[in-house]
Amino acid sequence: MSKTNPGRFFEDYRVGDVIRHAVPRTVAEGERALYHALYPARGAIYSSDDFAAACGLDGSPMDDLIAFHTVFGKTVPDVSLNAVANLGYAEGRWLRPVWPGDTLRAESQVIGVKQNSNGTSGTVYVRTRGLNQQDEVVLEYVRWVMVRKRDAASPAPDPVVPDLARVVPAADLVIPEGLDFSDYDFELAGEPHRWGDYAVGEIIDHVDAVTVEEAEHMLATRLWQNTAKVHFDATFREDGRRLIYGGHVISLGRALSFNGLANAQMIVALNGGAHANPCFAGDTVRAWSEVLELAETPAPGIGAIRLRLVAHKGAAGDTTLRGEGGKYAPHVLLDLDYWALIPR
Amino acid sequence: MSKTNPGRFFEDYRVGDVIRHAVPRTVAEGERALYHALYPARGAIYSSDDFAAACGLDGSPMDDLIAFHTVFGKTVPDVSLNAVANLGYAEGRWLRPVWPGDTLRAESQVIGVKQNSNGTSGTVYVRTRGLNQQDEVVLEYVRWVMVRKRDAASPAPDPVVPDLARVVPAADLVIPEGLDFSDYDFELAGEPHRWGDYAVGEIIDHVDAVTVEEAEHMLATRLWQNTAKVHFDATFREDGRRLIYGGHVISLGRALSFNGLANAQMIVALNGGAHANPCFAGDTVRAWSEVLELAETPAPGIGAIRLRLVAHKGAAGDTTLRGEGGKYAPHVLLDLDYWALIPR
Amino acid sequence: MSKTNPGRFFEDYRVGDVIRHAVPRTVAEGERALYHALYPARGAIYSSDDFAAACGLDGSPMDDLIAFHTVFGKTVPDVSLNAVANLGYAEGRWLRPVWPGDTLRAESQVIGVKQNSNGTSGTVYVRTRGLNQQDEVVLEYVRWVMVRKRDAASPAPDPVVPDLARVVPAADLVIPEGLDFSDYDFELAGEPHRWGDYAVGEIIDHVDAVTVEEAEHMLATRLWQNTAKVHFDATFREDGRRLIYGGHVISLGRALSFNGLANAQMIVALNGGAHANPCFAGDTVRAWSEVLELAETPAPGIGAIRLRLVAHKGAAGDTTLRGEGGKYAPHVLLDLDYWALIPR
């Protein structure tokens, strides 16, 4: 019997099961520096201890997406090693900052299973929680993936499809303790635009672009201990190309969105997201955002902005999202729906 | 009105204006490790807390050029986003060490403007200061760039061309507080050569070479939060090539110069510099140095050495600097003039 | 007289000489983060302060191979700059953990020299010790290399060939102070397999693979301050290819072996090793292990497992080691023999 991990198949998930993922990970200044070398991240709270302190925090926390990737990576060996596709995200919330030196681990509860009509695969829904060394939940989100069956002949389980919120309500957003944008320094942050300057429906083309290299996405994906072969092994796919981890595109798009959204400082919720098309080394990635919603929060000087972030490999300025039949246009890589905190 | 940063044009600079640059940045062990992975840096003071302590410092400071790149990067969105060319440096001085955990920000004062005769661009001179979280100046330098005009028809400003020192006088070099080379360990530092072993006019070919990769220069340039599109977006230039940030070549050349100048430990002044020709991925970069000047300092055991550092992509051992008509030879990438501290 | 380091030639080694290598190096969280970005390392003790603390340590030490590479890198300018080949390793032992913030230096004693019959080169044996800032030995190993002679006509020294242990005896393995696997959490560590689950002769194919990029091996090799030109300068070899540092393949293979050997947590001895064939960018590296020996230790809950680690660029699942005439098969890159600690 092999000692290596074959990954789980559709039959291995039972609603209610809790999977405690390996391997816990201490994240610190080194991971931060790498994140800022891998992505053109410039958000002031995640760049400067002093700026963060002026916003009421005990120094600069780890970037919101470092927390996401670290937790996500841990789930891969148990959730998506045999996945055919990553289908969606919902109900994601950042519940408390991750600080340099914190150790993160992850747990996932199976909350839904539904076999496909072809009988060879099915959809698995998990609610994943990231926990720190005090067993406090720092992040939670629902993800669903299509997973191969081990044996097409095995019987289908009773289908359970969870009822998921289309959007995290603004009232459920968790503001980091102490965060205060009353004395926010717009000049140091890089842009003058505040909450009230954005309008629902507004589209911001982020202008900048990055051409992606193999070494970069692999460094990133390994840093998050994501073990999916398809990202690292050029012989794995028939076309000899390494598929770039979808989270790399999320971070790239988000970092590019600084230009026009410099003050949308902290991601606090992930409402949904689709990896519309695969990304490969050599692609030049651009991004645009659409303002979807604006909400007040009870915290001092802090508003919430709900954004659609689209990353694409099309021409500069192309903000087409969908093509014929309502399908994503072929150049669209990512369509992400999230809430961020922004000074009012 | 777009929310993205279009950059400033020539008309936007007025002599006397002070630009407070975004985004402050905390630099620490992570940035140091990346610096040492990106460049073959081996200078003992920047490599070892113990070696630095034996030289009178409170541990190993951040590499001198980390301070430079971090400060420089902040100025790009305000100074050189629409620059046609980076024309020169002068009067650069490192005024105090940057320590792991320090937060750097930058300010630039416009000290000169001069429209070009063609009316479509002009030269802007700025004096940039890098400051730490105590608002102490850690670094200052003058840079001048050629910037496009927004409108060729706009009137030319009165020309102001600052009177810049060709060389920082040795008497103006600032020695880090406590630095003492009296008990300098040449064996651990890697070479026996001291101040008195170098002669003005001496040329040192540094022997080693590095072939540059796209992933490397982009990791570096992002780490310094330099946002110039030309370094990241392969579709930006007509030839489909990403131009390598000139500072990457400075650090590469400086690190290569360890072999022959291992004891020229700390850069304390930047007298001038030219990015003679563009550098692209695939280029194999070599370096040679010329000793320009030697000076005593009042600090214990410490001399100053003024060096020309030339980085090039020519054949091994080629120390040609200029070709026909006195122009830089086409293989020369960088011609840098700096002062370093070296044990006597 | 040139100031650059020409490296030592065969004539420059005398049995008994001790070489004190430059440059001391402080290693910390930044080096760790880079290591985990460069290699798919997931060993829980080196990933999580909390997991390490639960195993009796004062937090997570620096990865065992970070210590090895850092020490090895320092020896290159003095030992292998003019080496024709790295011939072997023996009697390697990790004597105490390296902690973030420690400063490492290295010393090598020449313990053997033997001129080759062709008169143009010879074998040099050195015993290298890595020391921390308290002058405690953290690591020691013997390495022998074939080094060119400066002058074929110079007389051969009396041959001295050290008597080296084929394998470090289990009784000589040094267990880190305090290490205790009594309450080892197999679930968090990633696999259920313990000491008693492995059998001598068992072969584990580690399934995963990584296609190697130029930027990655150069980042790694520079981080260890390894200065061998052949790794960085594409113009150095006639075929225009950069040879990948053998230690990069060691770390890659070791990290890949997580899948099947997740609990073989800490390397404590290096019994031997051969870099069977060169590795180049573009190669897809896989690994398999063979259990060579199992031993008890006096430490609580801790067993020792001796493993052959083979890294190769062959097809998935190919565990051929040798071909015709007993020579290494052409796809084999590395054959390493080491002891690791594993929960019983």
Model description:
Three copies of one chain form a homotrimer. Chain A is an alpha+beta fold. The first copy, chain A, has a single domain (10-151, 165-343), classed as Roll (Thiol Ester Dehydrase, Chain A), CATH 3.10.129.10. In chain A, 18% of the residues lie in helices and 31% in strands. Chain A is built from seven helices and eleven strands. In chain A, strands 1, 2, 3, 4, 5, 6, 7, 8, 9, 10 and 11 form an eleven-stranded antiparallel β-sheet that branches. In chain A, strand 9 and strand 10 form a beta hairpin. The radius of gyration of chain A is 20 Å and the shape is globular. Chain A starts with 17 loop residues before the first strand and ends with a strand. The mean pLDDT of chain A is 96. Chains in contact: A-B, A-C, B-C. Chains A and C meet through strand 1, helix 1 and helix 5 of A and helix 1, helix 2, helix 4, strand 6 and helix 5 of C.
Largest interface: A-B, 48 and 39 residues
CATH homologous superfamily title of chain A:
Hotdog Thioesterase
Shape of chain A: globular
Strand content of chain A: 25-35%
The SSE string of chain A, one letter per element, is EHHHEEEEHEEHHHEEEE
Q: Using DSSP, what is the number of strands of chain A?
A: 11
Question: What is the count of helical runs of chain A?
Answer: 7
CATH architecture of chain A: Roll
Helix content of chain A: 10-25%
Main sheet makeup of chain A = 11 strands, antiparallel
Radius of gyration of chain A: 20 Å
Could you say what the CATH topology of chain A is called? Answer: Thiol Ester Dehydrase, Chain A
Number of domains of chain A: 1
Spans of chain A of at least 5 consecutive residues whose pLDDT stays below 50 are none
Mean pLDDT of chain A: 96
